[in-house]
Specification:
Number of helices: 19
Largest sheet: 5 strands, parallel
Strand content: 5-15%
CATH topology of the largest domain: Rossmann fold
Distance between the termini: 64 Å
CATH superfamily of the largest domain: P-loop containing nucleotide triphosphate hydrolases
Shape: elongated
Low-confidence stretches: 127-133, 385-397
Structural class: alpha/beta
Strand order of the largest sheet: 2-1-3-4-5
Oligomer: single chain
Mean pLDDT: 83
Radius of gyration: 27 Å
CATH architecture of the largest domain: 3-Layer(aba) Sandwich
């Protein structure tokens, strides 16, 4: 559907007739209020929009409407209609994200050519950008920013190969989704995709979990058990939080990657494995290698093809798309006000997409019953100091490592120094907590 926005009855009628005669579906509305009602219900394929309204000769009302449209319909191309003397206004509109502009009076053939071009490019972008399927699994990767396009281009190039891939990026940036997309677009797509969280796997459980065991191999081994490498045979194994892997386990993993063989506990005959390895970490493995905390040979085995996921604060133009995606997934019919969306777009998001998802869901619970989530609703869900207009928990000078160290100190204090209980409260293993205690030089 093409949305026409113009306060002139004759222009609305002529454009509607022109588009319908060309086989296109059109709907015409007279002003900003009606236009926003439409885009909140459904994102149009394209918008034809006048920049001047009867209450505004400066065009400011048109610019403000364009800003709001780009919040609620960020993917819809907008063609601006303006008088010749207001070309500077149209240029400003282009800076705000409009696709093109045309001056009044226009030539119908020229206008239809621009409309078809916009629709064609919009369709191509729907197939190529994040947020819409350009490949299997891409429909859940939301984003059309240049940084995300680079990521998806990299996935498209590397997926058909058998190369090991190391996905890096902060927590909550969507590394698992990228790993799954690599698998789904590879020749192994019909095989299994097996995920392993190495951050929650202690060295005592590593062999059994990864390689399996035979009945009687150890106490409580009542039956045979397949390991993750056996389960992933002919498919892909995703090693998440590879930076948390303990040194003794790094050696065992390296052997599998070098020889493609392993031995289940209680069995002496090596087994071959045919898997593709995709790993991910939020840690700086280069630094860990220099510090002797991660094996250099294992690093180069894993890092044949690196893919880095940008944090959300570096791709803020994707935030409205993500908010709309999460809202749809909740089944809510509510929408975020322009002020709320603008506020969401300015938050720092140390927790990245995962944090944004939680904020959206909490905001919908708090303010969604009214049909509109306000800026104040979002502020209450983020713990914002309204006077300073930023989340009180987000100290600008505080790094992620400082935040993690502070959280560990609080957990240890709450548990009276009991490492086991503190690890449980943090949702990590005791071994992982000890590594962090050593990293941050925390005295017990």
């Amino acid at each position: 559907m093409i949305l026409i926005i113009d306060d002139d009855d004759a222009i609305r009628a002529s454009l509607t007739f022109l588009l319908k005669r060309s086989g296109l579906t059109a709907k015409a509305v007279p002003g900003p209020k009606e236009a926003l009602d439409e885009v909140r219900l459904q994102e149009p394929e394209l918008i034809l929009m006048d920049m001047n309204y009867s209450l505004s000769t400066s065009g400011e009302e048109g610019l403000e409407l364009l800003r709001k449209i780009k919040i609620f319909a960020p993917s819809a191309p907008v063609i601006l209609m303006t008088a010749w003397g207001s070309i500077s206004l149209a240029v400003e509109g282009m800076r705000l994200g409009a696709f093109d502009f045309i001056t009044k009076p226009w030539d119908n053939l020229a206008l239809m050519e621009r409309i078809r071009t916009a629709l064609h490019l919009g369709s191509a972008q729907q197939e190529d950008k994040g947020g819409n399927a350009a490949g299997r699994g891409f429909d859940r990767i939301i984003g059309r920013s240049p940084l995300m396009k680079e990521v998806l281009d990299a996935v498209t190039r590397v997926a058909p190969t058998g190369a090991s891939v190391l996905i890096t990026g902060e927590s909550g940036t969507g590394k698992e989704l990228i790993a799954e997309a690599i698998h789904l677009n590879s020749p192994r797509a019909d095989g299994p995709f097996v995920k392993v969280n190495l951050g929650g796997l202690s060295s005592s459980l590593f062999d059994s979990e990864m390689f399996g065991h035979r009945k009687g191999a150890f106490t409580d081994a009542w039956t045979d058990r397949k390991g993750r490498f056996e389960l992933a045979d002919k498919g892909t194994i995703f090693l998440d939080e590879i930076g948390e892997l303990e040194p003794v386990c790094q050696v065992k993993l390296l052997r599998v990657l070098q020889d493609r063989t392993y031995e289940p506990l209680g069995e002496s005959i090596p087994r071959r494995t045919d898997v593709r390895v995709v790993s991910a970490t939020n840690r700086d493995l280069h630094t860990m290698v220099r510090q002797g905390l991660f094996r250099e040979d294992l690093f180069y085995r894993l890092n044949l093809i690196p893919i880095h996921l940008p944090p959300l604060r570096e791709r803020r133009e994707d935030i409205p798309l993500l908010v709309q995606y999460f809202t749809r997934n909740t089944g809510s019919r509510a929408h975020f006000s322009p002020d709320a969306m603008e506020y969401l777009s300015r938050l720092p998001y140390p927790g990245n997409i995962r944090e944004l998802k939680n904020i959206v869901e909490r905001s919908l619970i708090l303010g969604g019953s009214s049909g509109t989530v306000s800026r104040e609703d979002v502020i209450r869900c983020t713990g914002t100091d309204t006077e300073q207009d930023r989340p009180a928990a987000y100290a600008p000078a505080q790094t992620l490592e400082e935040m993690e160290r502070g959280r560990i100190l609080r957990a240890l204090s709450d548990c009276n120094g009991n490492v086991t209980r503190a690890a449980a409260s943090l949702g990590i293993t005791r071994a992982s907590l000890y590594r962090r205690i050593e990293k941050y030089r925390i005295n017990l």
